[in-house]
Automatic annotation (TrEMBL), chain A:
Pfam families: ARM_KDM8_N, Cupin_8. The gene is KDM8. It comes from Esox lucius (Northern pike). One of its GO terms (biological process) is protein destabilization. GO terms for molecular function: chromatin binding; histone H3K36me/H3K36me2 demethylase activity; metal ion binding. This is Lysine-specific demethylase 8. The keyword Iron applies. Its main location: nucleus.
Amino acid sequence: MLIHFYWLDPTVLFFPQHLPMAGLWSAIFAALPVTEADFPLDFSEKIEPSLVEVLKQCRQQLYSGRCQWMQDAQIILDFSWEKLNTGTWRDVDKEWRCVYSYGCLFKVASLCREDASAVKVQEAIRTCDMGLLMGASIMDNVLQRIIRILQNKVWKSHYKEDPNEGVSPKKLKVDCDPVIKQALAVPRIRCPSLERFKNDYLDTQKPVILEGIIDHWPAFKNHPWSLEYLQTVAGCRTVPVEVGSRYTDENWSQTLLTINEFIDQYIVKNTTDLGYLAQHQLFDQIPELRDDILIPDYCCLGDGDEDDITINAWFGPGGTVSPLHHDPQLNFLAQVVGRKYIRLYSPEDTDKLYPHQSQLLNNTSQVEVESPDIEKFPEFVNAPYLECVLQPGDVLFIPVKHWHYVRSLELSFSVSFWWS
Amino acid sequence: MALSFRDRVEIWSLRENKPVWCMEVKTSDNTGPSLAFPLVPGGYIASRSPFYRPLSPQLLAISLALGTQHAVLLSASGVVYTWGCGSHGQLGHGDLSPEEEPRALEALMGLQMSSVAAGGWHSVCISAGGDLYVWGWNESGQVGLPSRSLRGGQLKTQCAGSASTCKDQENSDEVFISIQAFPALVDVTELCEVSKVSCGSRHTAAVTSSGDLYTWGWGEYGQLGQGNMSSSDEPKQVRFFKDQGLRVLDVVCGPWNTFVSAVKEDPPHPEDLSSALTI
C-alpha cells in the first residue's frame, strides 16, 4: 500500500528515492506559489495590521532566499493561538484559523530550510497536523500536500531501519462479555433495501443493526485495519486523545499525541489509564484512511450532500466508555475492529435518565449505566432499553436524540456517520 | 502610553520607538486619588465612547479588571464579583459555566480583598492581609500551580471544593492543574505581603511590600524579566531590581510584556548612624 500512495501523489513522482536534505526543501518550496506575488495574504480589518506586517515579512524572507523567519512564524502562531482559544470554538472567526495555518506553513518552511534532521521532520509533520486540526484550509490545502512530502521522508528512514516487530495489544483481563437478553436485543437485519430501511426504521425512528452492508469496505478487504497498518499509514500523525475514564469525570482531559505514541502508551502498554481517540474527524486529516471507508448508501435518504455528513473515528483499547448521551443528528455507527457493548434508551424516557443541568452537559445523563446509584436516580431502573454487542461488520442505526451508552470490550475501531 | 499623575494625565505616543509628547489632561484638582486608566490597545485611553452599564445599587464598585472575555470587580466591602465567559475557570465559581451578571465569589466570602487584576484567561486578587489568590487557566503556569506543559504528566481540572495550596513537587505521580476553577492561595514568598499585582495575557506579576517583583506564567517573550525565554509555574523573584539597588513600587502588564516602576533604594544616611550612636 506504500507503493499505492506513492503512485497517486504527483508531487512525489518527480523526486528520486533518496531525498537529500536540499531535496526536501525543494520539494516543499515546489508546493508553494512560484513567486511572492502569487502568494496571497489578504485579510479583513479583523486581523491586526501589525500582525499582517509580520505575515508579509515572513513571506518576503521565504522568497528572498534568507533563512531567518522562525521567530516571526512563532509570533504569528502565538498571537492567532490566543484568538483560537477565545470564546467557544464554534465562534472563532475562520480568518484567525487561516492565520494560524499560515503560521504553521511558515514554521514548517523554516524547519525544512536547512539541515532537516529526523527530529525536525517529525516536528514539521506535527506542525502541519496542528494546522490541519486547529487551522483552516489555505492555498488549496497546502498543508496536506506538504505533509505527504514529509511523510515520504519519514517512511524512507523507517524503511532502512529494522522492520516493525509485531505489535499486539496488551493482554488485559478481557471485560467480561455481557450476555444480551433476547427480549431487549436491538433487532438485526441483513442488507435491507433502501425502502425497507426507510419504512421500518428511519421513518419510525427505531434503532436497528444492519449486517453485511460494509463488508466491501477496503478496511475489511484490501487492507484490513490493524495496529500495524495504522502505524504504517499514519503513525507519525498527531491526533487528539481523550485521557480519563469518561468525559464527565473531573480527571478527564485531552492531549495531543502521534498515533504511534497513542498506541504505545494506551494500547500496547499495560496501563490503568484510559486513552481514547474519540470523536475526531480523522478521515479529513488522513486521506489515506478515508479511502478505506465508504459512506453507507442509506445516507442518501437524508437531506443535504455527502459533504454535510460528519465522519468521526473512535479508536481505543478495551474499557473505553462513552457515558449515556444523545446527539442532534442521525447516526450510523460502523464497527470495524473489535466489539462494543451498547445500550439504547428512547427520548420518550428522558425523564427517567436524569440529564445534567448545565448547558455544557445537557445532552448527557448523570447515571452510570452499568452501576447506577439507585438512591440518587431511583427512576432509572424503570426506563426501558435495548442493548447489543456490536461486532466487526455491523452498523448500528441510532435515531435522532436516542440516548446511547457505549463500552468497548476489547481493542476497538468504530466509524460514525452523523447525517440528517 | 498614558501616565497618570496626581494632578494630570499625560498621553505619549511612540514614534519610531521614541516617546513623543501628545497631550495632557488636567484632572479637576489635587485632592482625591489619581484616576486609574486601563491600558487599551492602540495606545489611547479609550478609542471608542464609553459603554455604560449600571450595576446593582448594593454593589459599591471600587475597582474593575478586564480579561479577554471576563470581568473581575471589587466592591467597597472587599467582595470580589466576576462575570463573563467561564470556560477556563476564570470566574472562580468552581465550574466552567458563563455568568451573565456579577456573581460574588463564595470561596472568598469572609475574607476582605483589597485589589483585583485579570489576565487573558485568569484572575487574581490580593487580600487585606497581603495574601494572593489566583484562579483560571494554568496552561503556562500563570496561576502559579504545577503545569503539565512545563513539567510533563497528567492534567487535572480542579473544580468545586475549597481554596487550597499545592506545593509538593518531588512526587513523580504528581497532579498537574490545567484549569483552577476556584481561587487558590499562592505563596509568592513566605517573607512578606503582596502589595500590587497585574496580569498579562498568560503571565502574572506581583510586587511585595518589601519592594521585590515576582513573576510567573508564560515567559517565551521575556515577559517574566528573568533574562531568558522560559515559562514558570511558580513565582520567582526578579533579581534584577535588587541587584541594581532598585525598590519596586508598582507593576502593570501588557499582553506579552511587563512594565515596572521602581526607585533607587537610598543607602542608609550618615545622620541615622550618628543618631543611633548618640542613643
